């Protein structure tokens, strides 16, 4: 079985955590069972993240203040971390953390 | 036995408010048009399709301006621009409103100002940030002025002298942080430093507006910023200026009004608005701050928690701020020389703050034993009220000890 081909995009400053690249095409390695968004987040932590994990991850999800979109729809509509990825999905991470 | 707070209630759940439950979509239809597939969930419960969401967002902005009528046709409006989503949305709201060809078109003239205050970053990062801002504002075709916070503080707040309209004239120096710290007492705590810099920035906005012929300033605070400012104000003894600091309009200056047109927005709305409109947002380099380092960050963290778990509470705080008005009797009081808000009423009776400073003052004077104790008291009180005529309001009086120059 071949890997899962998806696109990851960053905005609002989330790209600063990932080597300042706004868009990356990635192939997730084939694994047993499905790839959920939670699996993706942890795979990104191990393979793409260039800053401290606590800037991206909190508990079993992304840090509050980072919005996630699946194919341009709010991930809250998709059961968030439990969403099962499909080939050619576009996942967007937008940081909303703003200073005061 | 006292029964207050006894929690032997059958319904344990009613004791605390429940965080918003995880969103569950009933029928996969937009709340508004009931036809399209939703793409965003707001306040953890309302789902909208892209078209309804975008038109609702624009409408909310224009409804705010229409309802309050701060701006008249051909007025110049100073727009305080900075990094992050809210500022970008604000520029886009304005540009698209001005470009309309319907009667709902906006008819004023925005002028953008960027206050360079990133003293925690390297000179190179700061220049880059300013350059990003320059490019961004150019795309929206608004005139842009720059000012260095540090420069301005060094030159004793002579704003007109420090405003530049060419980025190459914006002063960014390696020693800005030290220079800025020099005007503050080295022992000043983070809370007071932040409070002082916030007041300086507000002064810059008011003076720059006057210099550029603007009667109104738009600032990009969101509901969550208003809520944490409200709680911060109360904690720092700025209760009397609440209506000015968190209300719809800050009119402490006679000629220039500061208006917060994004006060009814939450960050998610604007971040998604920017995303769906494919707007480039200037990212803010973030430093992780210790939430216990200042009252402001503590409040921000607290309010941020409310936003995530109990979003309705933020709305309640902001709507409360909307209704606050300053006490009428304060209007003609002398102005505080630092924050320019009206000073507190001076009563015949000493307030608790005045009593504290009276006892400090009286105990540092040598008593005159030729008088009776009652005479001594009356004489002291009389000369105290002369000496006690502070040029500051209650909160700034406390801050003034941290200012090296004033
Ligand atoms: Zn709709
Ligand atoms: Zn004051």
What does this structure look like?
Chain A is globular, with a radius of gyration of 13 Å. Helices cover 11% and strands 31% of the residues of chain A. Chain A has 100 residues and is mostly beta strands. Chain B is an alpha/beta fold and 406 residues long. A six-stranded mixed β-sheet of chain B has the order 5-4-3-6-8-7, sandwiched between helices. In chain B, strand 3, helix 2 and strand 4 form a beta-alpha-beta unit. Chain B is globular, with a radius of gyration of 25 Å. Chains A and B meet through strand 6 and strand 7 of A and helix 10 and helix 11 of B. The complex binds zinc ion (ZN) (2 copies). One zinc ion (ZN) binds at residues 336, 338-339, 341, 392-393, 395-396 of chain B. Chain B: Belongs to the CTU2/NCS2 family. Chain B: It comes from Nicrophorus vespilloides (Boreal carrion beetle). Chain B: Pathway: tRNA modification; 5-methoxycarbonylmethyl-2-thiouridine-tRNA biosynthesis. Chain B: This is Cytoplasmic tRNA 2-thiolation protein 2.
**According to CATH, what is the class of the largest domain in chain B?**
Alpha Beta
Do you know the CATH topology of the largest domain in chain B?
Rossmann fold
N-C termini distance of chain A: 49 Å
Name the ligand types: zinc ion
Pathway (chain B): tRNA modification; 5-methoxycarbonylmethyl-2-thiouridine-tRNA biosynthesis
Pfam family, one (chain B): CTU2
Keywords (chain B): Cytoplasm, tRNA processing
Main location (chain B): cytoplasm
């Amino acid at each position: 079985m071949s890997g899962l081909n998806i696109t990851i995009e960053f905005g609002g400053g989330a790209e600063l955590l990932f080597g300042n690249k706004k868009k990356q095409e990635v192939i997730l390695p084939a694994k047993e069972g499905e790839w959920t968004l939670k699996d993706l987040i942890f795979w990104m932590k191990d393979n793409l993240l260039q800053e401290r994990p606590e800037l991206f991850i909190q508990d079993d999800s992304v840090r509050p203040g980072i919005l996630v979109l699946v194919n341009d729809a709010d991930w809250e509509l998709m059961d968030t971390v439990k969403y099962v990825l499909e080939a050619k999905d576009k996942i967007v991470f937008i940081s909303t953390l703003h200073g005061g | 036995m006292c029964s207050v707070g006894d929690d032997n209630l059958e319904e344990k759940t009613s004791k605390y408010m429940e965080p918003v439950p995880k969103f569950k979509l009933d029928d996969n239809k937009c709340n508004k048009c009931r036809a399209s597939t939703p793409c965003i969930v707001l306040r953890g419960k309302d789902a909208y399709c892209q078209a309804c969401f975008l038109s609702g967002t624009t409408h909310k902005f224009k409804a705010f301006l229409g309802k309050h009528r701060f701006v008249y046709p051909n007025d110049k409006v100073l727009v305080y621009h900075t990094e992050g989503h809210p500022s970008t949305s604000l520029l886009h709201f304005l540009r698209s409103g001005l470009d309309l060809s319907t009667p709902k078109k906006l008819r004023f003239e925005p002028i953008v100002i960027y206050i360079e205050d990133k003293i925690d970053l390297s000179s190179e990062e700061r220049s880059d940030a300013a350059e990003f801002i320059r490019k961004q504002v150019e795309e929206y075709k608004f005139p842009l002025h720059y000012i260095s916070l540090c420069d301005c503080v060094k030159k004793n707040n002579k704003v007109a002298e420090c405003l530049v309209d060419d980025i190459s004239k914006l002063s960014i120096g390696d020693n800005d942080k030290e220079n800025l710290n020099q005007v503050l007492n080295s022992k000043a705590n983070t809370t007071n430093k932040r409070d002082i810099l916030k007041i300086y920035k507000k002064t810059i906005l008011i003076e720059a507006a006057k210099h550029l012929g603007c009667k109104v300033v738009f600032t990009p605070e969101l509901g969550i910023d208003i809520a944490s400012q409200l709680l911060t104000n109360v904690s720092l003894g700025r209760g009397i200026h609440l209506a000015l600091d968190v209300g719809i309009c800050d009119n402490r200056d006679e000629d220039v009004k500061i208006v917060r047109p994004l006060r009814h927005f939450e960050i998610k709305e604007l971040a998604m608005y920017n995303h769906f409109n494919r707007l480039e947002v200037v990212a803010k380099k973030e430093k992780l701050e210790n939430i216990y380092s200042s009252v402001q960050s503590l409040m921000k963290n607290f309010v941020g928690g409310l936003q995530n778990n109990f979003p309705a509470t933020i709305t309640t705080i902001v709507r409360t701020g909307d209704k606050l008005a300053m006490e009428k009797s304060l209007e003609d009081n002398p102005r505080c020389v630092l924050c320019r808000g009206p000073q507190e009423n001076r009563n015949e009776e000493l307030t608790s703050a005045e009593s504290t400073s009276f006892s400090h003052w009286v105990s540092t004077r040598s008593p005159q034993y030729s008088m009776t104790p009652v005479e001594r008291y009356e004489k002291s009180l009389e000369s105290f009220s002369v000496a006690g005529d502070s040029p500051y309001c209650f909160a700034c009086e406390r801050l003034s000890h941290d200012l090296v120059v004033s």
